[in-house]
Predict the 3D structure of the following.
Amino acid sequence: MDKTARLFSLMDALRRRRLPVTAATLADELSVSVRTIYRDVQALIALGATIDGEAGMGYVLRTGFFLPPLMFDDAELEALVLGASWVAGQGDEELVRAAHNVLAKVATASPRDLRDRIDGIGLWASPVEGDPGTVFLPRVREAIRLEQMLHMHYRRADGEASERTVWPIMLAFFERVRMLVAWCELRQGFRHFRLDRISELTVPGGHYPRRRSVLVREWRREMRIPE
């Protein structure tokens, strides 16, 4: 691996982590020596990368640094195209536009025009069939993003109907089902709601009283999902 490719790989390794990572770990991941990692970190700092830390303690990349040019190998480009294709098939018009815009930005932000390569990739994601609550997707996504409460009319699988105020924290996409993860004020606990079983949905205004990141951690612990 030449130095340029190695610096890109090191940047990718740092971007993937929020917490400091040791030079030894980076060296093992990139199959280079620890001394090489020390030198490459200093080279990136000289190029303007805001890397905190020092030898023996670990490094962390602060946000806001972009190392041009933007380059993707074949597998990375296939992952982007397949992911965007899947998102575009979910029935949420805003996400459809966003997915197409992402690919257009990727194609034109690279040193070479990638539009022909993107159009020629032989991967395709089937669009969702039916209407699994897609009409509510934009409103639910916005409520999650803004940490807003939702009020809904909901009908369970056994036919029992109820009105609930919930604190939405996550939206899960399965093949035929869209599932809302939320803290339910009625049940005083985390519950999972299928969007296609919601008949009415409103945003009463106001934020729920606890941060979503805290609620997500509590839900993961309850579900025994590793952090």
About this structure: Helices lie at 3-15, 23-30, 34-47, 74-88, 93-109, 115-120, 137-146, 212-223. The radius of gyration is 22 Å. Residues 16 and 61 are 9 Å apart (CA to CA).
